[in-house]
Design brief:
Rossmann fold, seven-stranded parallel sheet, two-stranded parallel sheet, 11 helices, 13 strands, binds nicotinamide-adenine-dinucleotide, binds uridine-5'-diphosphate-4-deoxy-4-fluoro-alpha-D-galactose, UDP_G4E, EC 5.1.3.-
Amino acid sequence: MAVPQEQTILVTGGAGFIGTHTVVQLLNKGFRVSIIDNLDNSVEEAVNRVRCLVGPDLSKKLQFHLGDLRNKEDLEKLFSETKFDAVIHFAGLKAVGESVQYPMRYFDNNLIGTLNLYQVMTKYGCKKMVFSSSATVYGQPEKIPCVEDFNLMAMNPYGRTKLFLEEIARDIQKAEPDWRIILLRYFNPVGAHESGKLGEDPKGIPNNLMPYIQQVAVGRLPVLNVYGHDYPTKDGSAVRDYIHVMDLADGHIAALQKLLTTDNIGCVAYNLGTGCGTSVLEMVAAFEKASGKKIPFKLCPRRPGDATAVYASTEKAEKELGWKAKYGIEEMCRDQWNWASNNPWGYQSKP
Ligand code: NAD
Ligand code: UFG
């Protein structure tokens, strides 16, 4: 499939974890990129690192705009100045626990921000969108692997925003068939850019497994709590489908190419995972091997709301996007450790 060159892509939330890695790949493929991010969960230094990585020539094709999707004027300004060929929409809040405590924050940010984006895109005639959905829309799957046509379910306010936004996308596309929308359901994104210059840098105590392990490895946290050791799995700990963030980034390029080159694509969902399940204890062992560090852990009760085992069926993305994950957990842990050991305090220096 021919790559449409010199197209301009708006990346919302492009200063964040998945956004930065995707922007590097977009620039490497010859796209022009504008980022809009309010830096709520990221820092501008991450965008500076992207510029360093791609070099001075490709950097000229990258623009950063500090702005908030909830302010329609921020979007109006952007769209009135630049003609975008498509939007990759990452911006949103993503912490499950926080969403249970402060649901309004999630509805306000994720729903209002996205509705504003659709309205401004419609007004300026840009009707191509790749949306960050999540495996969270499968809830507690009754069967695995998860297939795209399973019934969907939300378990918490964060998950509900993803589910609503998927439904909203389907309704908008049905009402206005010239929209082309791809919903990407990510499984568990981990790892980092192989250079060690980009990676995940959560604010506060990490909620997710790999950033937590990473902070234990560099001595920022004393011990990992392993939530659940009595699941009906190979070693009693829960099983997930971890996917290298660079594979995920390439999945976005594949989706974008499909979007830009296919008429009548409609609104379609794809899983982005590896299709392999790995337990929490297997992940700990793989990280210890990659880092040469001992990860002290404590076996704890299950975390409320967690599923036993979740992994993706990858057939649809392979067949229709021509995309397949390349990396296994060894490479994910290697690159995550490379990032962690070079940046033990993330993008900041030690506080
Ligand atoms: P992230 O927090 O690192 O990146 C999101 C970015 O969006 C941040 O830079 C943040 O500052 C920005 N942002 C948030 N609200 C904004 C607003 N109103 N206006 C402008 N910018 C705003 O998160 P990530 O891990 O890169 O996730 C990206 C997307 O993928 C999110 O939508 C998330 O829900 C989804 N997702 C992530 C995971 C995961 O485990 N990382 C899994 C499934 C889905
Ligand atoms: N876990 C621990 N200790 C920790 C953190 C996590 O044992 O300190 C366990 C969890 O209990 C779970 C597994 O590690 O069994 C993975 O947990 P994560 O929090 O890393 O990931 P989840 O599968 O719970 O959820 C993540 C994102 C969701 C997203 C989902 C699917 O947080 O937003 O992946 O994409 F929806």
